[in-house]
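Hey all, quick one. A colleague (J.T.) asked me to put the cobalt (II) ion job into the tracker so the inputs and the C-alpha cells live in one place instead of scattered across chat threads. No bug as far as I know, just bookkeeping. Sequence used:
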Amino acid sequence: MKSLLQKLTGIPGPSGYESEIRAAIRSEIEPLAEEVRVDNLGNLIAIKKGNDPKGQVIMLAAHMDEIGLIATHIDPNGFVRFTTIGGVFPHSSLAGRVHFLNGSQGVIGQETPADINKIPTFDKMFIDIGATSSKDCPVQVGDLAVFDQPFLDLGDRLVSKAMDDRIGVAILIETLQQIDTSPNTLLFVFSTQEEVGVRGASTAAFSLEPDIGIAVDVTRSGDTPKGVKMEVALGKGPAIKVRDSGMISDPRVVDWMVSTAEKAKLPYQIEVLERGSTDARAIQISRAGVPAGCISIPCRYIHSPSEMVDLKDAVNSVRLLVELLNQKITFNQE
Ligand code: CO
Ligand code: ZN
C-alpha cells in the first residue's frame, strides 16, 4: 500500500484537471471490477455487482483531486500572480515549491513585507519560475499548479502533498482488491472537484442513485502540541464521522460502522469535525436523500504540502470497509 500511495500522491491532479491521476487509478482498478466508466464530470466509477437481489447499492467515494494554484497574471518581469483552487493557506504556501501541469516548476515568493512576522495574503505573493520577462515565461494565465514535495516515509507515518485524498483513493483500491463477492452492489467512485465544493460526487450520486453512501477522506487530528480540541489521533484507527460542518452522518450508518468495528475487534475513533466536509455530504442530500456516513483517516497539516497520516489507520480502514461491505444490511426508518 505504501508504494501505491507514493505513486498516487506523486501525480498532479488539481480540481477539474484529474485526467492523469484518473488514468493511473484506472489502470489499478480495471482488472478488479466488472465495469469501469467515466462520467461527464470526470468521475471514475468502478462497479462490482452483488450476488443477492435483496442486497443494497452502496456508493463509496474518495476524491481524486487535490488543492492547487492557478495563474491569474504574468507581470513584465515574468513573475506569476495566482489564486487558489480549494482551501490553500498562505502560511503553509510561502517559500514552497509548485509544479505546473505543463511541467514548469517554481517557488512562491512574497513582496518585501512591512512586518516580517505577519503572514502575507496571497495577493502579496507570486510564483517565481525563473523567467526574466513575460515573453520567456512558460506559464500562462489559467495554468494550474500543485504543491511539489517529495514523499516522506517515516515508517508508519507517511508525509506527502495530496495525502488528502489519495490515501482515500488507495484505501478504496485496496478494498476493491480484497472484496471477493458481496451481497451488495458496490459502486467505487473516484470523484472529481471535491476540493471546490464536492461537485463530482454530487453528479455521481444523482446518476447512480445509491441506497447507502460512504465517503473515505481525511480528517483533522487533535494530537499535536497545543492542537485543536479534537478526540482524533493518528494511529488510533479509522475515524467514524458523526458530524462535520457540512453534514450530520446518518445515525444508522454510524451505528452500523461502530458495531461492525466492535465485532471485528478493529480500532476506531469517533469524529466530530468542526471545519470542513466530504463527498458524503453530496451523497446524503442527493435526490430524495441517501443514508450516508464517512470513514475518515486522521491527518496532520491538512491542506499543506506535507500532510501526515499513519499507515495503520489506512490498513484498518480497509479492514473495516471489507467487513461493512460484506454484510447484509437494511436500514429501517421508524
Ligand atoms: Co481536502
Ligand atoms: Zn479531502
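Adding what we noticed when we looked at it: The chain has a mean pLDDT of 97. The helical segments are 2-10, 19-29, 163-178, 199-208, 251-263, 279-284, 311-325.
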